[in-house]
Design brief:
Elements (H helix, E strand, L loop, with lengths): L2 H12 L6 H6 L1 H17 L6 H8 L5 H16 L5 H11 L9 H21 L6 H5 L3 H10 L3 H10 L3 H18 L1
């Protein structure tokens, strides 16, 4: 397969007709944008059957930063659509072996950590109250996502006490405090 045929296949499969394949092949910014659009179409589908094929195609891109970014966007998109941690864990188990195609270990690790972060968040949404040790095993990004978006008093209290950064602790403390004021 060539980059041209891979990009053409991805765009056609997503029904995206307004991207010039030659332009996408020649310019990684155009290609990256095209991949993001393919990912949006892919994540909006109820079926996850074609995700591994799409990831394998994207990972053949010669610029690993472009392909890593597209795969992370897919992970993020799917994580927001699944019904819970079990479904996401199963989906990720099928996806993660494919990231071995990335030569850069840091990119593979970034994707694995993103999957771990989403499993952490989904387990919280499913009722799990994390421990300080579990919290320390997720990225600052996920801690900030939780501090800014969680509605669980227990999670906000944990973040206010054990968040990895002062900003995370302050956000959680302020949100926990404002929730207490509203409930009175």
């Amino acid at each position: 397969m060539t980059l041209h045929s891979d990009v053409a296949e991805l765009l056609a499969g997503a029904g995206i007709l307004d991207v010039n394949v030659d332009d996408a092949v020649a310019d990684e910014h155009v290609r990256s944008s095209a991949y993001r659009r393919v990912v949006l179409v892919t994540t909006s589908s109820r079926s996850r059957d074609g995700d591994r094929r799409i990831v394998a195609t994207i990972l053949r891109d010669p610029l690993e930063m472009v392909s890593k970014s597209a795969v992370v966007a897919l992970v993020d998109g799917v994580a927001t659509k699944v019904t819970g941690p079990a479904e996401f864990r199963q989906w990720a188990a099928g996806l993660l072996p494919g990231i071995a195609a990335l030569k850069t270990e840091g990119y593979r690790e970034f994707i694995r950590r993103r999957v771990h972060d989403w499993l952490f968040l989904l387990s919280i949404e499913d009722g799990h109250v994390p421990t300080p040790v579990e919290l320390s095993e997720v990225t600052d990004w996920m801690q900030r996502v939780l501090a800014e978006g969680s509605t669980s008093p227990a999670v906000l209290a944990l973040l206010a006490e054990s968040g990895s950064r002062k900003k995370i602790r302050n956000i959680a403390m302020n949100r926990a405090g404002s929730r207490e004021l509203r409930s009175r």
